[in-house]
Automatic annotation (TrEMBL), chains A, B:
GO terms for biological process: 'de novo' NAD+ biosynthetic process from L-tryptophan; anthranilate metabolic process; kynurenine metabolic process; L-tryptophan catabolic process; quinolinate biosynthetic process. Residues 2-320 form the FAD-binding domain. It comes from the Eukaryota. PROSITE patterns: PROKAR_LIPOPROTEIN. Pfam families: FAD_binding_3 (PF01494). It catalyses: L-kynurenine + NADPH + O2 + H(+) = 3-hydroxy-L-kynurenine + NADP(+) + H2O. This is Kynurenine 3-monooxygenase. It comes from Nezara viridula (Southern green stink bug).
Length: 442, 442
């Protein structure tokens, strides 16, 4: 069939590889230039954490190797306290799995090059989609070729919307009856800074560094060139307060992130401390319009970045969509319906978990109760292996559907609570017995 | 100032009266024909329940009298059981207040005629808004005058979006950063039927008739011409099941609404039982773009119709917006910001209550615990008057902000629970004492 993919970002280009591999005629339309001819674009996260779901999805089209080659493994979180102490918390102390820091631009370029290797995949950059007609399976666009003056169209057998959080395809879907949708901005924004590559001072590589400070936090992911991309997450009002006040910005960093300030450099912190970007969480149902169109990735479920699953969930969409469309006994409409039901449920779970994980990263990682539970979880994981996979590990290092991971966690909580009561009874009963005997002996 | 109102429906035309009365230059743009030259349009509810908030808002521009003249008072719900028994539950047994059934078309025509009386109010029907530029306070539209070919524009000092649940103004606002939005369709739809005017058989007028049947329900509101508009609310899947099956539709009505079927007529039920309309709940924040634009009514907060407050909340928006804009000490931007914060909080409350009231209408009205609580509430209302206003009465018969009504209800629940515990203790203590004495006397 002829597949029109709107959006040539990470998810769109991987999706093209899947359809390309199956021999379909694929056309990617993207309003931007080919990223391989472009400099780094501002306003999008620079590097991302690739984990098991993403790797699994890449491996099905045979590109995981070339991508992991460039990824930097991160085996745990490195927590920086205010006083400059550091503490490593491994992601998977039992099986030593790790996540990988990859550059968005690099990954996108690789995937586009991979997609292009299929003769049946055709790239159309500088083509801006203006609207979609689902009934006729047509997309309408303006292209830079003719100065954006003339409205052109293409007609396919399936329209795939992979055009991100502000998706045009989803916007058109919203006009369909019974389309539920929500977009929720959080009151926090983010700003990216950079620790330049250097030889004389460095942070421990192979870690995702976190400076949790309650109301706000700083994180750092390593880049290929030995530099670090540092992201400050903070309430928007706090950004507003500091905006333009060089002295206040410097003393804010000195007070809260003295070690990071030293690495980034005073002048660079002040220079790069401009308006923050916003963070939005998007949910909708359903993801398809009959057998005519489907959305996936951020256009179906944008999430706040605190579980590091946005890209991984999008890649997983591609794998599951491919499985459903090419599974025997399902026609295209049934496959898309099933995809929509399955993925919307799982997207809901990971969107909610991502929101929750923000407070975990800012606060909980420093709390004793949280650390104890994590230790207990890891012991049980070590003892019972696949029977007791802690939440973080199941989200990050398995392909178990997100909603099942969440269900498992709830089951684990119930078990732990019951065990606690049993232990309490078991310890209270002999104590009561001794007290009883002691009183009798008086 | 020059106010551009998008939408000339109920809320848009009342809003024009408010701005007109204050002497502003007002332009209403609506894509439809002037309703005064049109027949009844399909697909919109035919009559509506006007209550205190709506009446208060109408009275400020002096039009409540002419509207109430045409309204039919409904003093309570008439509950129809399956066996044909009927039971009247008054809305306000203490102060005998009632709600009014008014025709949407009639009310709209009246309000447009009222707005037109102001020389500074200008009507532009057959003008379809295509987009809005908030920065320049411009709206762009195509008009039927020139065959919709040419894109024209108008520039004002304030753009008011009163263009309903599928608002174009809101759609443009969604592109602003930090604009939260959700649209949720419920799994139930509705279909309107009619009981024709007749002399030989009739229902008790001055009531809103309800046939609660658990999973679905029928309601009927009286019209001026002695006919009744009957609405069936039911799960969409159930509509699908019955669609096109004449025999099944008839036996469904025979089984569940035998008395209503007799009044509507077999052939009319089958004839009018076509595709159901959908029900959507819409929430968003915020309602304004600086001092440039504001949305109100359904475009800001569409709700499911089960509390009868959609129109009333929209009319109340007009009153509150007028108060804020013309209150001393607030500039336009401050007034719009305050309007947005205040009304979004209250809209959230009434949207949620409306959703909840659906199950109340379908099920609770027949349950003993619900009826007892209602009775207890009414006794306390009678005893303590303004100190104990039951939820339904405060929503329907006062101008207390919706969110406060909800808070009051929560406070009332706590008080009742505490009183219950005190009474329980008070009755248990003497009983224990007697048991103790009795055992001693053995």
């Amino acid at each position: 069939m002829k597949v029109l993919i709107v959006g040539g970002g990470l998810v769109g280009s991987l999706c093209a590889c899947y359809f390309g591999l199956r021999g379909h005629e694929v056309h990617i339309y993207d309003f931007r230039n080919d990223p391989r001819t472009e400099k780094l674009s501002k306003g999008r996260s620079i590097n991302l954490a690739l984990s098991t779901r993403g790797i699994e999805a890449l491996s099905r089209v045979g590109v995981e190797g070339v991508i992991l080659e460039h990824g930097i493994p991160m085996k745990g979180r490195m927590i920086h306290s205010k006083s400059g102490e550091k503490k490593s918390i491994p992601y998977d102390p039992v099986y030593k799995k790790c996540i990988y820091s990859v550059g968005r631009k690099h990954l996108n370029e690789l995937l586009i090059t991979e997609a292009e290797k299929y003769q049946n995949v055709h790239l159309h950059f500088n083509h801006k989609i203006t609207s979609v007609n689902f009934e006729e399976k047509k997309i309408f666009f303006k292209s830079a070729d003719n100065n954006n003056s003339e409205l052109k169209e293409d007609k396919g057998d399936l329209i795939v919307g992979a055009d991100g959080a502000f998706s045009i395809v989803r916007r058109e879907m919203m006009k369909q009856p019974m389309f539920n949708f929500s977009q929720t901005y959080i009151e926090h924004g983010y700003r990216e800074l950079t620790i330049p590559p250097a030889n004389n001072f460095k942070m421990e590589s192979n870690h995702l560094h976190i400076w949790p400070r309650g109301e706000f936090m700083l994180i750092a992911l390593p880049n290929q060139d030995d530099s670090w991309t540092v992201t400050l997450f903070m309430p928007l009002v706090k950004f507003d307060e500091l905006q333009g006040k060089e002295h206040a910005i410097k003393s804010f960093f000195q007070q809260n992130f003295p070690d990071a300030l030293q690495l980034i450099g005073d002048s660079k912190v002040i220079e790069d401390f401009s308006k923050p970007s916003h963070l939005v969480s998007i949910k909708c149902t359903k993801y398809n319009v009959g057998n005519k169109a489907v959305i996936l990735g951020d256009s179906a479920h944008a999430m706040v970045p605190f579980y590091g699953q946005g890209m991984n969930a999008g890649f997983e969409d591609c794998r599951i969509l491919d499985e459903f469309i090419h599974s025997e006994g399902l026609d295209l409409e049934e496959a898309l319906e099933l995809f929509s039901i399955t993925r919307a449920k799982n997207a809901e779970a990971i969107c909610n978990l991502s929101m929750y994980n923000y407070s975990e990263m800012r606060q909980l990682v420093t709390q004793t109760s949280y650390i104890l539970r994590k230790k207990l979880d890891n012991i049980l994981y070590w003892l019972f292996s696949s029977k007791w996979i802690p939440l973080y590990q199941s989200i990050t290092f398995t392909n178990i559907p997100y909603s099942e991971c969440l269900q498992n966690r709830k089951r684990q909580n119930v078990i732990l609570r019951n065990v606690f009561y049993v232990l309490l009874c078991a310890s209270v009963t002999p104590i009561s017995w001794y007290i009883f005997r002691w009183k009798q002996s008086l």
